[in-house]
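Our preliminary data section would be incomplete without showing what the modeling component actually yields. Below, a chain of 300 amino acids is followed by its predicted structure, encoded as C-alpha cells that our downstream tools consume directly.
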Amino acid sequence: MTERALVSICIPTYNQTVFLTKTLNAIVKQSYKNFEVIVTDDSTNDDVKNLVEKYQREFKIIYVRNTPSLGSPANWNKALDLAQGDLIKMMHHDDWFEREEALEVFVQSFEKNKEVSFVFCISKILNVEQNTFSYNTPGDCFISDLVKNPFILFNKNKVGSPTATMFKKTALRFDEQIKYVVDVDFYIAFLKQHKGFHFIKEALIVNTSYHQGQVTASSFNANIQIGEYAYLYNKLFGNKIPNYELSKFFFFLFRQYPITQLKSILEFNRPILEPKWYFALLLNLSKISIFFKKVKKKAI
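Predicted structure:
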C-alpha cells in the first residue's frame, strides 16, 4: 500500500514550459521526499503535458488538463481540490525552490510549531527583463503587527506570492471573482480562521517578474486595481469609511488614475461590483480625499 503524501505541491499552469522546467527540476532535487505534485493545466497546447510526462518516474505527479480552460484563480482551486496531502505548497509555474532543503525547511516549521497552520518565507525575486534579483523581506514590525491584525495585509502584502507560503489543508478557496488581490484576500481569510503562523527568515523560493505571460503584469490598470480593491475593501469592511492608513492608500491609488475613468471602472467590474459595491466606491471617491486631508491636518 502506497503511503499517502504529507505535502501536496500544487502547480497551476498555462502555456509556459521554460520556467516550469526549472520548477520541476528543483522539485526533483528536494531532500524531503514525502510529497505529491498536482499539475492543473489551462494550456491551449500540449507543451506542458509533454513536459510533465518526462517527470513521471521522478515523483508522484497528477496531471489534469482543463477543458475548457478555467482561468486564474479557478485553476488554483482545481489543484487544491485534487490535493490529498495535509500540507499545501502552492507553486506558480514560473517560480521554483531556491535550494535542495527548501521543502524540508517548510515542513520542519510545522513539526516544530504544532500550533502553526500557515508558514511563509522571504522571497527572492528575479526580474527577468533586467536579470537582477531583489528580496521581499518582511520586517519585525510587520510580523508583530500581523500577529495582532491580519487585515494589515490589505495594503501591505509582505507575505508575498502564494509560492512563498505553505499552509494546512483547508476548505477555504481562492475567491474566483478577483485576480490581482486574490492572494491578499486568501491570506486574510486564512489567518482569521487559523491564528497561528510562522515566518521563515530565509529565501526558500524564487519568484519571477517582468516576463511575458505573468498574470500580475497584466493587472496594472485602473479597471482591475481600483475595482478589485473596492471589492475587497467592502468584502472586509462593508461601507465603513477607511481609517487613516487605508485612506492614504486609496487617496494615492485614486490619484494614480484620472477620475474620468470612473465610468469605465464601474462597467469593467460590473460582474464583481454589486450595487452596494458601486455605492461604496462612489462614497470613497467623493469622501476619501477630504477625510485624508482632515486627518492629516490634525496630525500636524
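Residues 221-299 form one domain. Strands lie at 7-13, 35-41, 61-65, 87-90, 96-97, 118-127, 132-136, 165-168, 197-209. Preliminary results of this kind motivate Aim 1 of the renewal.
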